[in-house]
Amino acid sequence: MKELVETLAKALVDQPEEVVVNMIEKDRSVLIELQVARGDMGKVIGKQGRIAKAIRAVVKVAAARQKKKVIVEII
Amino acid sequence: MKIIEKIGKTIDEAVDKALQELDATRDEVDVDILEEPSKGILGLINVRPAKVKVTLRDNPSKRASGLLKSIFHSIDMDIKINISENERTVFIDLEGNDLGILIGRRGETLDALQYLLNLAANKNQEIRKKIIVDIEGYRGRREKTLQRLALKLADKAKQRGRNVVLEPMSAQERRIIHTTLQGREDIYTFSEGDEPYRKIIISPKK
Q: Dihedral sign, CA of A5, A6, A10, A11?
């Protein structure tokens, strides 16, 4: 899942080398923290969070396959 | 952009090797000849292979399929990606087992994937192409369902003489409904609200 968020984020931003992804696993849920360059924030959030929502939807597929809940936070 | 260097007995051979590795065709790449081949003297002394630099020109469909491959790799799903394209649109059809999970409720996940692919593949590109992702004919089936729904609700609006409000839909789906009911004399359609909650209203003509 971490790899997936990283792949998606790197494909969207202008400075892929600044993408940092952290994964904190708990019992049944996973928290993924996505960090990008300041100027790239808009590219992973989008108007009214549309891009962030799309990222979460795709990551959810990966999580569902592992029967886990996932929270993707952009920090 | 991908660049690789290859050597071969002839320039053609070197280029072919590079194309194979890049999974590309001749018209998708630029070739620079770094070293001409030399047969040497009697084919013994000073034999030099040809050396070429092959640059794969970036295009939206390559980017899209590359991204899809890495997405599916990290989800650990075995999915076949079929691509066809014309001047303005790239059509991607996915084949595999258990792809319902990728479609999601009313195609939500599929739309999310399509949206991200459009953004990523057209990022900083001069030539932009619209990317449409489909899974085993899902979009075609959904279109038929929406057309049936449109006709049914149009009749309902006419019968009751009242507005019928549909649930929120994507622009793509709203268009199918508008188009289906375009020719009708007894009702008209319009949309109301802001994305992503924009919805269609079917209203009887007085």
A: negative
Determine whether the interchain pair B116/A7 forms a contact, defined as Cβ–Cβ distance below 8 Å. no
In this complex, is the C-beta atom of A1 within 8 Å of any C-beta atom belonging to chain B? yes
pLDDT digits (tens, 9 = 90+) for B131-170: 999 998 999 999 999 999 999 999 999 999 999 999 999 8
Q: Measuring CA to CA, which residue among B150, B168, B169, B155 is closest to residue B204?
A: B155
Distance CA B161, CA B203 (A): 8
Tokens of B201: 């209203």
Q: Which of B156, B205, B144 is nearest to B180 (CA)?
A: B144
The complex scores an ipTM of: 0.93
- pTM, rounded to two decimals: 0.77
Q: At what angle do helices B108-121 and B60-75 cross, to 10 degrees?
A: 130
